[in-house]
TrEMBL record:
This is Membrane protein YczE. PANTHER family: INTEGRAL MEMBRANE PROTEIN, INTEGRAL MEMBRANE PROTEIN-RELATED. The keyword Ribonucleoprotein does not apply. InterPro entries: YczE/YyaS-like (IPR038750). Keywords: Membrane, Transmembrane, Transmembrane helix.
Length: 221
């Protein structure tokens, strides 16, 4: 922060709160999708498969994969923000904590509403986190970085990476199902709605050194 920057105040406090509440809720929502057992979001299919392979918890695998993906930012010259580094740890910790606290669910009449609630909560969490504007998550930063460096469309880069992680995760034992499809269809519109809900008014004097990227640069943590 430069000497002329506005001192930290309510705006920065709100953004930090949004960041960490959003990341924590993202981990909670991902854990609830695991409990529902009807299919996970693409990267967690991979995380679950690796967890099955290694015997580590899915949250710990998420942290390890996030850190490894962050290393891939170096050759594509992508710069992390506070939200990027926080994402690596907070989501995985919240996910493991929720999995330990929530009992297993077996009845389909409970699993379906749980899946739906988890996807909506994921949209809320995504809106909170992105609106905080502290930088993209490691996985989204990889996608936007490759898009910028290769000139390929963001849709193509994202689709290629997510197909690769889903297929790899499924082969390793990750769960693909109706929840994976519903998540893929619903998360974009949900994130956009909640991004508008939680967006803070822009301040022309707001510090920029802690914000790694604009909300548009980070679609999903």
């Amino acid at each position: 922060m430069s000497a002329s920057s506005t001192p930290p105040g309510p705006g920065l406090t709100r953004r930090l709160l949004q960041l960490y509440v959003g990341l924590a809720l993202y981990g909670v929502s991902s854990a609830l999708l695991v409990k529902a057992g009807l299919g996970l979001e693409p990267w967690n299919v991979l995380h679950q498969g690796l967890a099955e392979l290694t015997g580590l918890s899915i949250g710990v695998v998420s942290i390890i994969v996030g850190a490894l993906v962050l290393l891939l930012w170096i050759p594509i010259k992508q710069r992390p923000g506070l939200g990027t580094v926080s994402n690596v740890f907070v989501v995985g910790i919240a996910m493991d904590g929720t999995l330990a606290a929530v009992p297993d669910v077996h009845a389909l009449g409970i699993r379906i509403p749980l899946m739906a609630a988890a996807i909506v909560l994921n949209g809320v969490a995504t809106g909170l986190y992105i609106a905080a504007s502290f930088g993209p998550g490691p996985r989204d930063g990889l996608m936007t970085g490759l898009h910028r460096r290769t000139g390929r469309s963001l849709r193509l880069v994202r689709t290629t990476i997510e197909i690769a992680v889903v297929v790899t995760g499924f082969v390793l034992g990750g769960t693909i199902g109706v929840g994976t499809v519903v998540y893929a269809v619903a998360i974009g519109p949900l994130a956009q709605v909640f991004l508008k809900v939680f967006a803070a008014p822009a301040s022309p004097e707001a510090p920029t050194s802690v914000a790694g990227a604009s909300p548009e640069g980070a679609i999903i943590p």
